[in-house]
Design brief:
TIM Barrel, Rossmann fold, eleven-stranded mixed sheet, 31% helix
Length: 688
């Protein structure tokens, strides 16, 4: 049965192509506006994000609003068949506001108030700032809510941690804590283990989130900042939803960063969008960066149950990051943009459309360079992509349906950073470890959902949970039930160590009842320096068929099998002969425990065998060359298989059948040659 998600907007049921457009910077040269319209159509752009940092242009002084320039832009875009993702301007407040109302500026941990500068330095608790945001947003909604060009609202820009230590924020934090701990200060002190170093709080008013030695306190501060950001977002969108309830809202997440719990934030938006800036060509292996980027694409798709997301920002050439960066080589822009589509995006958008003449991002890549013409390599490549995206409109609304899930959890990330780093130091590497466990599936062309500890597990054949240091409420029970009912789970060292306030679980690691599920007890762990490694070897005749020896690095835990089968053992150091990899049968399922950090050769061998065991196949049912991957989007009836070559040289791919490549209209042979940074989109009948 065919199943498609509805389009991002019914006004334009296509893949969107465009970018951040800042016409307010060019108000004194209206001829550039007209040239922009010509160039947008030439580049195949159909949607532009407008007004994101335009507060000083919209309200140059308090209470004096100027919308004429935006009226003209909205009408010009509509007249040229281009739609608008209309921004609200709260990401950067105007100078008059900072000077008239100093409370809207953030306060540093030392109590000093920040001056008016840069951007994103507003207090999200400030009643004044909330009032001003709602006022400008209401005026935008009333003026443009029915405009034919308006597709959706782009609310603010790149919400981040928002670390403000003003009294408004502290009072809100204390009220949040009172509700969280049922107004029981003794309960809070116990959760923080505040008797250590005699840091017990005798009164709620004593609580200030500035003591990094109190891990539970800092975790709650991080949670509060997420909830306060969501509350601020909801306050921002209230007038938009009231005036124009049918217009969807989004904001561009920074899901590759860990400043907020974006899984919690995703519940508040209608559409998930994110900003992607991979570091292409900065090593000899672009496929490593491709896998890293793919993981975050998959996370954004997973946040709404497979609903297509928006690639809200990318760069057609090179970003500016105060460090050496490489330009995209010919073909990489086309490939990296279609990679986003392959993993579930229904848009390709850029920061920025036209380069600014001055300030911080005047050299940041753009579709239109300072030369102002279409006669550049970047513009030609953007135009080529625009033509390809038009051929892929039928893909819009389809989704990805993985059998594998990898758990990468923001709050667990915080827990490891606050709580485990004091012991593991630079060897924490949580996100790197998640990527290492993801990459074998990416290489094999097997789709993966990236989920957090709050998600349901029942729809997956295999669940992987690297370094699940913190057990959030209900997570251990979901793992237990999932395995008992027939699922397969992989857990690693340093899992089930603490609860949600970073209190160590008693009774042995992994805690929370997982010791029984995995049939192991982790006694201790050893850290290693970068130049060190420990040899491990597969046991003869193990049930998974693992063979050979491998080098473990960074962290090796000493575990004891308590009913689990030992699949591999350490062959060196004082714990030689103890288990390095185990499997435990629990209920109808299987629970694997990996006691050490393993390198790519081990993980590839292990997961390839596990995929065979669970009958998990590549979307292409073919062995892919190194650096080539495949992903599939489907509506249940039709499959669209994206085959992507992240090598600079061409590769041959053995296909299991003849397909039609949508991008060229040609039928493939049994062996297809994919050029350097090449892409094919193969259309096929969906397989059950």
């Amino acid at each position: 049965m065919s199943k498609r998600f509805p389009p991002l907007s019914h006004k334009c049921p296509r893949i969107l192509h465009g970018g951040d457009y800042n016409p307010d910077q060019w108000r004194h040269t209206p001829e550039i506006w007209d040239e922009d319209m010509r160039l947008m159509k030439l580049a195949g752009c159909n949607a532009m994000s407008v007004g994101i940092f335009a507060w000083s242009a919209l309200e140059p002084s308090e209470g004096r609003f100027e919308f004429d320039w935006l009226d003209q832009i909205m009408d010009k875009l509509a007249d040229n068949g281009i739609y608008v993702v209309l921004g609200t301007p709260s990401g950067s407040k105007p100078a008059w506001m900072s000077h008239a109302y100093p409370e809207v500026c953030r306060v540093n941990p030392d109590g000093t108030r920040q001056p008016h500068r840069v951007r994103h330095n507003h207090c999200r608790t400030s009643p004044v700032y909330r009032e001003k945001c709602q006022m400008i947003n209401r005026k935008l909604a009333e003026r443009y809510g029915d405009h034919p060009a308006l597709l959706l609202w782009h609310v603010s820009n790149e919400y981040n941690g928002g670390d403000c230590h003003c009294e408004h924020c502290y009072q809100a934090f204390r009220e949040w804590l009172k509700k969280r701990y049922n107004y029981d200060l003794e309960k809070l002190n116990y959760a923080y283990w505040s008797s250590f170093w005699s840091h017990t709080f005798p009164d709620w008013d004593y609580i200030e989130p500035i003591d990094s030695t109190m891990h539970g306190l800092m975790l709650d501060w991080a949670r509060f900042k997420t909830e306060q950001t969501i509350d601020f977002f909801n306050a921002e969108i209230a007038p938009l939803k009231e005036v124009a309830p049918d217009i969807p809202v989004t904001t561009n997440f920074m899901t590759a960063c860990s400043t907020l719990d974006y899984w919690a934030f995703a519940k508040a938006v209608d559409i998930v969008s994110w900003d992607s800036y991979p570091a292409w060509h900065e090593t000899d292996d672009d496929s490593a960066e491709a896998a890293r980027t793919a993981l975050v694409h998959d996370m954004n798709r997973s946040m709404k149950g497979g609903k297509p997301f928006m690639l809200m920002e990318s760069v057609p050439s090179i970003p500016t990051r105060d460090c050496i960066k490489k330009r995209k080589k010919p073909g990489m822009h086309y490939l990296s943009s279609l990679q986003a589509i392959a993993h579930g995006s229904d848009t390709v958008q850029y920061f920025q459309w036209r380069k600014s003449r001055g300030c911080k991002e005047k050299f940041h890549g753009a579709v239109v360079d300072h030369a102002g013409t279409e006669h550049t390599r970047v513009f030609r490549e953007v135009s080529e992509l625009g033509q390809a995206l038009a051929e892929l409109d039928e893909v819009a609304g389809t989704t990805v349906s993985p059998e594998v899930a990898l758990i990468q959890d923001y709050q667990n990330d915080w827990g490891l950073d606050f709580g485990a780093r004091v012991f593991l130091g630079e060897n924490v590497k949580y996100r790197e470890e998640c990527l290492a466990h993801y990459r074998p599936f990416w290489e094999a062309g097997v789709p993966v959902d990236i989920i957090d500890q709050t998600c349901a597990l029942d729809q997956y054949q295999l669940v992987i949970a690297p370094m699940s240091y913190m057990l959030r409420p209900g997570f251990a029970e979901r793992i237990r039930n999932y395995v008992y009912q027939g699922g397969t789970v992989v857990l690693t060292y340093w899992s089930g160590v603490v609860d949600e306030t970073d209190l160590c679980l008693l009774g042995g690691t992994p805690g929370g009842g997982l010791r029984e599920v995995f049939g192991v007890w982790e006694e201790e762990s050893q850290n290693y320096f970068p130049e060190e490694s420990v040899l491990i070897g597969a046991k003869d005749n193990n049930s998974l068929g693992m063979e050979g020896t491998y080098n473990a690095v960074d962290i090796c835990s000493v575990i004891h099998a308590e009913g689990a089968e030992v699949l591999a053992e350490y062959e060196e150091d004082y714990f030689a002969g103890s288990p390095a990899l185990t499997k435990n049968d629990y209920g109808s399922g299987k629970a694997y425990y990996m006691a050490c950090r393993n390198q790519a050769d081990f993980l590839r061998e292990f997961y390839n065998r596990l995929m065979v065991d669970r009958s998990i196949q590549s979307v292409l049912k073919a062995e892919l060359p190194e650096g080539v991957t495949a992903q599939k989007r489907t509506d249940g009836d039709t499959a669209y298989i994206f085959v992507m070559n992240f090598n600079e040289t061409e590769k041959n791919i053995e296909l299991d059948a003849a397909y039609t490549d949508i991008l060229t209209g040609k039928t493939t042979a049994s062996t297809a040659t994919l050029g350097g940074y090449g892409v094919m989109v193969l259309k096929d009948r969906a397989q059950s």
